[in-house]
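=== Structural record ===
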Amino acid sequence: MANHRSLILLSFLFIFIYSAIAKAVTYSVTTLGAKPDGKTDSTKAFLSAWAKACASVKPPVIYVPAGRFLLRNAVFSGPCKNSRITFRIAGTLVAPSDYRVIGNAGNWLLFQHVNGVTISGGILDGQGTGLWACKNSGKSCPSGATTLSFSNSNNIVVKGLVSLNSQMFHIVVNGCHNVKMQGVKVSASGNSPNTDGIHVQMSSGVTILNSKISTGDDCVSIGPGTSNLWIENVACGPGHGISIGSLGKDLKEAGVQNVTVKTVTFTNTQNGVRIKSWGRASTGFARNILFQHCVMNNVQNPVVVDQKYCPDNKGCPGEVSGVKISDVTYQDIHGTSATEVAVKFDCSSKYPCSRIRLENVKLTYKNEAALASCSNAGGTSAGTVQPTSCL
């Protein structure tokens, strides 16, 4: 009996000590001066919470309670003394309504040189509508800020996050390794300019799962230097689809390889699965790519490779793309095209696309067979392929 009591006492003591430790490493932004009124600038309080968390040797939590917190651009820099910082967000972070305040900053919320950061929950409201209107009017405007950026960082988790109305890109992963995004929701108007949902470049081991992206540009854009990227169970639309590229903007450029895009639904998008490169010399490449189990609902260009990208015909007329595209598989792609040409491979005349594979593809246009168009593309087809393969 005495032993039993001792065990109970020890258990209570352990729980008490554990609770005390847990409390000691939770930093609430409101305790540090943040106001949940959506009007008071809370940037300093957030940076103060970060400084404390970064200096902690125990795994800390930065807690953002319910409410709206106004933040100017903020940089959360490492390296830190621990590799397990959690941002637990129950509220909404709001960018200044005047887009000029952060419009030239490049980033609104930037994490750089960090290792082991988790962002859980929360809403990021970029309040970008004013900047979009400025850009769409043709006036001179700031380029705009990316809502959430990770630069030169490792072991990042983003889960259950909502990004609304970013000025520019919603989320950018640049120079990172081992990044997992799960249950992310991106929302912006279909006519919002340059508002890519998630952009990945110069990064490896990035996973994007169970997410819904509605925006005015690419749902996911995959830039140079991306490898071992896995995208699964994503709903895209409105938007410009999932794009590898633009590649080949620079003469010397890192390639893209080992990309899997599976179980994705595209609805009323400009493109479905796209690879695009500038029509000019480059050392870039795209290889070992799988597009699998994709549903197209009224998509303008369901399957497209465009190696003649040349916006406004500046800097590339008369040249051909140096980007080498090879080993790309399209497997179980079906649905409806909004245009007659549902499959288009417009490849480089100097470096034709090679080892393209179409397997069980069925795309229709107005309940009839769609068309396929091939230029400088070679490969094979298997199973049912409609439109009839032109490879």
